[in-house]
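Example 368, ligand nicotinamide-adenine-dinucleotide.
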Amino acid sequence: MSRQPLWLRCEKKEFERRAALTPTTAKKLIDSGFDIYVERDEQRIFDDAEYEAVGCTLVENNSWPKAPVTTPIIGLKELPVSDDPLPHTHIQFAHCYKRQAGWSSVLSRFHRGGGTLYDLEFLTDESGRRVAAFGYHAGFAGAAAGALAHAAQKNGQPLGQLEPYENEAAMVKAVKERLGGSGKGVKALVIGALGRCGRGAVDLFRKIGLDEDDIVKWDLAETAPGGPFQEILDVDIFVNCIYLSSPIPHFVTADTIRAAGKDRRLSVVVDVSCDTTNPHNPIPIYNINTTFDKPTVPVDVGPGNPPLSVISIDHLPTLLPREASEQFSSDLLPSLLELPNRQTARVWVTAEQLYKQKLAEAVEAEGL
Ligand SMILES: NC(=O)c1ccc[n+]([C@@H]2O[C@H](COP(=O)([O-])OP(=O)(O)OC[C@H]3O[C@@H](n4cnc5c(N)ncnc54)[C@H](O)[C@@H]3O)[C@@H](O)[C@H]2O)c1
């Protein structure tokens, strides 16, 4: 049987250090009959040499348009905006299936080039659950940012710029240091604690030394009575990790915060779910997404009351590029191993059906 080629392209989005394929997964693919081409990329958290060492063929940065059209191209983020037709098969997050800004022009590039898009967000298992997602490290990094903001606030300072950490241990060490050696004594509430992001948030709090009793874990059962919840105001850090699928009562509101006055313990809200512009956002106390250079936004708490900040960064896993990539890539591996049988393998067939449906909608919208 001939070997299956796969081409890892560089990421062009600023600050994006993650990779869809890591040297570990690349090695497993090579051992299973793949030829892996890797574009040289200084931005990526993994060195080019790490890929070369496991047998990948290194190619020029951003040279995928010249790759043979039969070679699928894998990457994470959107391609830079352009009108160029796309003749290849692309495996990536394209953010164009939910009618996001520019969705139909992205899909029209595939239409004109004759290529195929397998959107990573829509590769699912038999039960409809995503085969690979970045949630765990989003929660982990979000909880770390929350703990850093809490420590800064105790010292009367705003939280400064956040930078990606070399690895998880470095992040845990830095957070503990800022908290004076340990997070013991800090109390946190994680809602959506049974999900991917929620499990990551709980693990970070454990690793920085919070007592188990001080990590309050809520999921659907606990929020079933409907908010707003006093319990949120009685912890230092509240991390929201729910998957919002239908309107629910607010978890916390500007009124409940003001009414708590000086007795409020809550100092930081981390909204990992980031339903910022969703009209049903259960945390309607902020209205912007924050960024690595300005990670917090203050809440209007009323005169004389203790400060409260919100962190609403929508690309938190970028703070842990190495581990986030390793986890994502290894979760994706079983599906990638099916790539040579993509005409019959369920995960790819389903993704292609969805692509064709979205493509037809785009063709109609663009009048092609
Ligand atoms: N900020 C970021 O960088 C980032 C990164 C990845 C994912 N996310 C977002 O985080 C959210 C969660 O993603 P996930 O992969 O962890 O989802 P998930 O499906 O694995 O987990 C969601 C959890 O929320 C629970 N839940 C849903 N509604 C609830 C409610 N009303 N009350 C209590 N619990 C509730 C579910 O039972 C589940 O346990 C999504 O909105 C996702 O888009 C954000």
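Summary: The chain has a mean pLDDT of 96.
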